[in-house]
Design brief:
Belongs to the glycosyltransferase 2 family. The chain has 451 residues and is α/β, with parallel strands linked by helices. It has 15 helices and 8 strands.
Length: 451
């Protein structure tokens, strides 16, 4: 998206959505499930001929195994998301211009070309309080540390560089904890640039939240959206898919990943759970430990940062398979039924069915699509085209919410039409097999790689 800080932009308006009648979270949870259940029952009724035809070829139990993974469960989850977002009203900020001192941690390895720009964007923040920056040089072989100190001097910000020789983002971040003297700390990736109001909004959300909220995830969008088609496709994944999932989870007070790319944490809470764990998905496991303690994790859509996404398939494959592996790793460490809150039980429990959905999609839907090209419509047929209008309807709802965010921040949504159609029509063809590979990596305990 064309959304990096603009020198001429005005201050964002304080409200995001119009006020409406308040509906308690518990009722929103029940209403959304009722709508999703009704949607799934309609799908079951509509798919009876499909079950019969496919069952005649592979047996009814096998047909149901396939169709449940391809249609019923994904349809239920999508309907739950859309109905929840339609009911969502972000609570107003009680504090709009915080001035508390904060610390930003930037763990990096061989980032000499970008660390200066990242620090420059921090210096442009409209935040009124002191900002301390700790750059953790994780055994770089270039001039990352020198470039960070130079940027601190050039842009008049307080930059401290520490060294951590042991490779791994968790080791780097944990090395910084003894140096943090503020109540709140923000983590930021070295290739991530902040919108000028990002720090103000994420700190304001933390200060406006109940006392049991220990972290707030920011909204991460794509920085290199004018790159190759793969990056332009991911622009819509971040803008519609990932942001909307986080908004859904934040509505039910259980954002499942306070991502290391841009989130704020209570320093005491991080220390209390032992810091970032030695895990491929260190931010996932950390967040689930927060939730397991009965604490809450919010999401702030107005706290926007822009990150570099992979432009080559190899880099994309490694990143997304690592994310999928991190999810399985979190399920190993903290079981959903051990979560103390009903909402987080449900949200983390949804991750149990994701491998099933991705495996069915990879090993059944994709071969079924190939068969359809040769005139065999056992799995993919003309009726499956009905999914397209539903997909467009879902994305239109998600687009509406994100458009409101951009309007408040005075950003512009780029007309990336080719990337949008690639996202709607083909993105899942890549995502499911990549995720399946990540699941297999975790099951067989393959070697872990940070980047």
């Amino acid at each position: 998206m064309d959304g990096l800080p603009n020198k001429n932009s005005k201050s964002p308006k304080p409200s995001l959505l119009p006020k409406d009648k308040y509906i308690p979270i518990r009722k929103k949870f029940y209403y959304s499930h009722a709508f999703a259940l009704g949607s799934m029952l309609f799908s079951i009724w509509f798919s009876i001929p499909w079950v019969i035809d496919l069952g005649g070829l592979v047996s009814v139990p096998v047909a149901l195994f396939v169709i449940v993974g391809l249609s019923y469960i994904p349809g239920y989850m999508n309907a739950f998301m859309v109905s929840s977002l339609l009911l969502d009203r972000q609570p107003a900020l009680k504090v709009t211009h915080p001035a508390e001192e904060i610390t930003i941690l930037i763990a990096c390895r061989n980032e000499e070309n970008g660390i200066g720009e990242t620090i420059r964007y921090i210096s442009l923040q409209d935040y009124q309080g002191p900002i301390n920056i700790i750059v953790i040089d994780n055994h770089s072989t270039d001039r990352t540390a020198e470039k960070a100190l130079e940027a601190g001097s050039d842009y008049n910000v307080n930059v401290k560089v520490i060294e951590e020789a042991k490779p791994g983002k968790n080791f780097a971040l944990n090395a910084a904890i003894p140096h943090v003297e503020t109540k709140w700390m923000i983590t930021l990736d070295a290739d991530t640039l902040l919108h000028k109001s990002a720090v103000r909004y994420i700190v304001a959300r933390m200060l406006s939240a109940p006392h049991d909220v220990c972290a707030v995830a920011g909204a991460v969008l794509v920085r290199n959206s004018r790159g190759r088609l793969l990056a332009r496709t991911q622009e819509w994944d971040y803008f519609l898919g990932i942001a909307s999932i986080k908004r859904l989870q934040g509505l039910f007070q259980g954002t499942l990943v306070a991502q290391g790319a841009f989130s704020i944490y209570k320093t005491e809470a991080v220390a209390q759970v032992g810091g970032w764990p030695d895990a491929i998905g260190e931010d996932i496991v950390l967040t689930w430990r927060f939730l397991g303690n009965g604490w809450k994790v919010y999401f702030e859509p107005l706290a926007v940062a822009f990150t570099e996404v992979p432009e080559t398939f190899t880099h994309f494959f490694r990143q997304r398979s690592r994310w999928a592996r991190g999810m399985i790793e979190a399920l190993r460490v903290i079981k959903p039924w051990h979560q103390p809150l009903a909402y987080t039980k449900y949200l983390t429990g949804c991750n149990f069915v994701m491998p099933y959905i991705d495996i069915v999609y990879t090993f059944v839907w994709l071969p079924g699509l190939v068969l359809a090209f040769f005139g065999s419509y056992w799995i993919v047929g003309m009726t499956t085209l009905l999914v397209l209008p539903l997909t467009l309807l879902q994305n239109s709802v998600l687009y509406r919410y994100q458009r409101n965010v951009f309007r408040v921040l005075e950003l512009r949504i780029r007309k990336n039409v080719l990337g949008f159609f690639a996202y709607v029509l083909f993105y899942q063809f890549i995502m499911s097999p990549v995720s399946v590979w990540g699941y297999f990596q975790e099951v067989f305990r393959a070697k872990r790689i940070w980047k």
